[in-house]
Amino acid sequence: MGYTVTKKTGNSVERSRIKRRLRAAVASLDLDIAQTGADYVLVGRRAALSQPFEELLKDLRGSVRNAFKPRKSRPIQSKSNSLAKSNPPYDKVQAD
Predict the structure, then answer these.
(1) How far apart are CA 33 and CA 65, in angstroms?
(2) Chain-centre distance of CA 2, in angstroms?
(3) How many other C-beta atoms lie within 10 A of the C-beta of residue 44?
(4) Average pLDDT, whole number, for the chain?
(5) Where in this chain does the entry annotate a coiled-coil region (predicted)?
(6) Vertex 71, ends 68 and 77: CA angle to 5°?
(7) For residues 80 and 61, what is the distance between their CA atoms, to the nearest angstrom?
(8) How many other CB atoms are there within 10 angstroms of residue 18's CB atom?
(9) CA torsion angle for 60, 63, 67, 73 (degrees, to 10)?
(10) 17-50: per-residue pLDDT in tens?
């Protein structure tokens, strides 16, 4: 498990507290749900400071379970219309 908290989240005391809470949540989590051989990186957010610990555990448990679920594919939107409007035509060459 890796832990990261950006400087935008708060000062060093707040960032350290978030990391300690995340480490404690992982330590109390049943690691059987984590996939063997996978690397996990937890990105700490400011909400981790005020969120109740039981709720933090529930969110973490759900995230670890869902990390390797296959995602449903989304329909691909055609970009041809937007490209035609934004790019100038290349077949017209201006003479100098």
Answers:
(1) 6
(2) 13
(3) 22
(4) 80
(5) none
(6) 150
(7) 41
(8) 23
(9) -170
(10) 999 999 999 888 876 667 777 788 889 999 999 9
Strand locations in 20-71 (E): 41-43
Q: Is it the case that residue 88 has pLDDT exceeding 80?
A: no
14 vs 12: CA distance, rounded Å: 5
Q: Exposed, middle or buried: residue 84 (CB in 10 Å: 0-12, 13-18, 19+)?
A: exposed
11 Cβ contact partners less than 8 Å away, ≥ 6 residues apart: none
Give the number of other CB atoms < 10 A from CB of residue 58: 13
Coil/strand/helix, residue 4: strand
pTM summary value: 0.65
- CATH number corresponding to 2-69: 3.30.230.10
Q: How far apart are CA 28 and CA 31, in angstroms?
A: 9
Classified as helix, coil or strand, 61 is: helix
Return all residues near 42 (Cβ < 8 A) that are at least 6 apart. 1, 2, 3, 4, 22, 26, 60
